Amino acid sequence: MVEPVDKKALLGELKIDRSAPARTERSWGKWLWGMAGGLVLGMILWFIDLPSGQQPITVSTAIAMAASAQPVGSSVLDATGYVVARRQATVSSKATGKVVEVHIEEGLVVREGQLLARLDDSIPRAQLELSASQLDSAKASLAELDVALKQAQLDFDRTQGLAQRNLASQADLDRDELSVQSLIARLERARKDIVVAERGMAVQQQILADMEIRAPFSGVVIAKAAQPGEMISPVSAGGGFTRTGICTIVDMASLEVEVDVNESYINRVYSGQPVQVALNAYPDYHFPAEVIAIIPAADRNKATVRVRIEFLERDERVLPDMGVRVAFLDGQAETPPVQAPQGVLVPTSALGEDNEGVFVFVVSGAKAARRNVRLGAPEGERTRVLTGLANGERVISDLTPPLLASLADGGVVNDNGN
């Protein structure tokens, strides 16, 4: 039987007791959560170094590059070509074997004789130990024959003394004499066997040394062709599962330029002629060079003659297979002496001007700082900055009016690259 519900008592429980003390646990919890949120927000703003309410501005930047010297003479002929290496080698092994160690990676600078890789040498090492044992056996045989020869010589001397007293026959004397001569011949052969064993051991030592692949000259590794566990052979073998080289090394000191000159203008080129080379990657920098040789053969299909050009100065920016533009200069013309280049080159669009003068915005980290500069002459799409900017510094490359309106000295920017 269900007991009757006292509705009046239930309504009484819903009344608020005004005399009870106020509960502050919930308000304290909200206060603590608010403090924690503020602390986290402050740390985020501190780490990214953003002023309160300021958002980064996305900009494009460019690197200020050292300006090149002016041409040393007037150009009599222009041509295009490529940077080539006169000393380049794909390093392989002398014998077929399995690669067990590789000690190089692309871009690594290696010295002549440096260990590049190692092949499995278990069989050549065992053959070397066999050759060493054969050499020891030959030396032991020589020692045995030497003792036998001494004994035969004593027997011959004794028989010779008896024969002089008619106590031994001539046949005994001849037999002992022939025994001595036979042992002398065998002793000489044993000596030659030792020489053969030593040379055989030297061959096995060379085969074992060939299991270590070393750099033939100093240079830079530009390609890695094999990994540990792969088979390698000096000739193509085993279908497509056998490598024919470990790596490719280029001697950067041997880089030069090769261009094809139309045979109609080859009379304007001569050996030792001054040349200026501009890389396609760095069109505003001119590398001094000169003609090494004109190859005495023409290409009938292209009607061109190949010309070799040598760099007079080495530069790390010059890499194999880079495209170049070449200006053959008139070396006979009188020209003023070349002065050292001054300033750096920046895109003309990176320059701004106001009442305080010409300026650029230099980007360092996430900040853009205004800097006043002094200009030189424009050079194509770039302008020479004489003072106020150093080589390698990064500047905002496109100072449009809307960007200048939102950009402030010391403002936060997001570098979008070149």
Task: Give an overview in words.
The protein has 418 residues and is of the alpha+beta class. The protein has 4 domains: 57-68 and 341-415, conserved putative lor/sdh protein from methanococcus maripaludis s2 fold (Beta Barrel), CATH 2.40.420; 75-86 and 253-329, Elongation Factor Tu (Ef-tu), domain 3; 89-120 and 211-250, OB fold (Dihydrolipoamide Acetyltransferase, E2P); 122-201. It has 5 helices and 26 strands. The strands form 5 sheets. Strands 1, 2, 20, 21, 22, 25 and 26 form a 7-stranded mixed β-sheet that branches. A hairpin with a 4-residue loop joins strand 16 (282-299) and strand 17 (304-311). The longest helix is centred in the middle third of the chain and has 43 residues, at 122-164. The radius of gyration is 44 Å and the shape is elongated. It starts with 6 loop residues before the first helix and ends with a strand. Mean pLDDT is 82; it is low at 45-53 and 334-338.
The overall average pLDDT, rounded, is 82
CATH architectural category of the largest domain = Beta Barrel
CATH class identity of the largest domain: Mainly Beta
Provide the low-confidence segments as ranges: 45-53, 334-338
Shape: elongated
Radius of gyration: 44 Å
Helix amount, in percent?
25-40%
The portion of residues forming beta strands comes to 25-35%
CATH H-level homologous superfamily name of the largest domain? Efflux pump adaptor protein, beta barrel domain
Total domain count: 4
What is the CATH T-level topology of the largest domain?
Elongation Factor Tu (Ef-tu), domain 3
User: How many β-strands, per DSSP?
Assistant: 26
Structural class: alpha+beta
Distance between the termini: 88 Å
Query: In this structure, how is the largest beta sheet organized?
Result: 7 strands, mixed
Number of helices: 5
